[in-house]
Design goal:
Blueprint: H1 7-13, E1 15-18, E2 26-29, H2 31-35, H3 37-54, E3 60-64, H4 68-79, E4 82-86, E5 96-103, E6 106-113, E7 122-130, H5 134-145, E8 149-158, H6 164-170, E9 174-180
Parallel strand pairs: 3-4, 3-7, 7-8, 8-9
Antiparallel strand pairs: 1-2, 5-6
Helix pairs in contact: 3-4
């Protein structure tokens, strides 16, 4: 059995890609955690402990496409929880509810099956990275439109200088992250 990595050790294993997707941006690449079995397992263990402290009975994890999927799936398995997929348009086969939200240069939208979350269901949003918070807030609003109770969002990485935590706070969501990086 391998030793669980500390959060600082996980931070060292996150890839940094300069000037992607635009000049001056340092892209934080979690695929380096996914390809390293010990780093992925340790990340999931830390997320599991965090979500276990936050969860209410019957909580459902709401995974944001696409890099939130592997983390939410592993935590859901560990804690025996259900999960809901929050996807880009046209990816879900049954009736969906969608929400459009603004990006820095344009707009995007997310969808969820209308019958995946019953009114009053507690949900925790899970994604790999919190930057500006626009996608996370859109996912929260979409889930709330279906009647879900959403009070927490959990991320592997936070880029605090980009303001996502503040945007989530304005939407009455507590943001929780394992790792934080200065700059963007």
């Amino acid at each position: 059995m391998t030793e669980q990595l500390r959060l600082d050790q996980l931070a060292e294993r996150v890839g940094a890609v300069p000037d992607f997707p635009a000049p001056g941006i340092v892209f934080r690449d979690i695929t380096t955690l996914l390809r390293d079995p010990n780093a992925f397992r340790s990340t999931v263990d830390h997320l599991t402990a965090l979500i276990d402290e936050l969860r209410e009975p019957n909580v459902v994890l709401a995974a944001i496409e696409s890099r939130g999927f592997p983390f939410a799936a592993a935590v859901a398995q560990n804690l025996h929880l259900g999960q809901v997929l929050v996807r880009k348009p046209g990816k879900l086969p049954r009736e969906t509810r969608s929400i459009e939200y603004q990006l820095e240069y344009g707009s995007d939208s997310l969808e969820v099956h209308v019958d995946d979350v019953a009114a009053g269901t507690p949900c925790i949003v899970v994604d790999d990275l919190l930057a500006t918070g626009g996608t996370a807030v859109a996912a929260v609003n979409l889930l709330r439109d279906l009647g879900a109770v959403v009070e927490h969002a959990v991320f592997v990485i936070d880029l605090p200088e980009l303001g996502g935590t503040d945007l989530l706070s304005d939407a009455a969501i507590e943001s929780h992250s394992l790792i934080s990086f200065d700059g963007h």
